[in-house]
Design a protein that fits this description.
Layout lengths: L1 E3 H4 L4 E5 L3 H5 L8 E6 L2 E11 L2 E7 L3 E4 L3 E3 L8 E4 L5 E5 L1 H35 L7
Parallel strand pairs: 2-3, 6-8
Antiparallel strand pairs: 1-7, 3-4, 4-5, 8-9
Amino acid sequence: MKKTVRALLNNRIIKVAEGEASRYMGGSFIDCDYVVVTKNDEVRKIYDAYKSNNRKKYRVIEDFVVTSEEEVFNLENYNGETFLAVNEKGEIAGVVSTREIISFMNDYIKNLKNELDLVKTDLEAFMACGDNDTRGKRD
């Protein structure tokens, strides 16, 4: 299954200078999923925000792949990489990590289940019509 990076993108990020990161990450007031730390407009680290015991905590990501948000991504070949997506102007557009892949796949599976339920309902209705149809039958 292929999707563009833009379709998977999480843009709930905040971009901060290297020296200011601890100020933003000290409390739980910040409403973002990722903190992108830069030095001279070059991304150094990405902090993945998550909740633990009702407190926001951060996991540092130093290995990431910079890619275009227009890049076509093959989900079947995903190996847990974190992608930092940039737009056509070279600006940070967002992040794609395991969190976004899992969320997308959960939504995809939910939609497949809904479609399967519709097919089952249609099949049951079709079968019921066939059972009740006695036209043209002789005893």
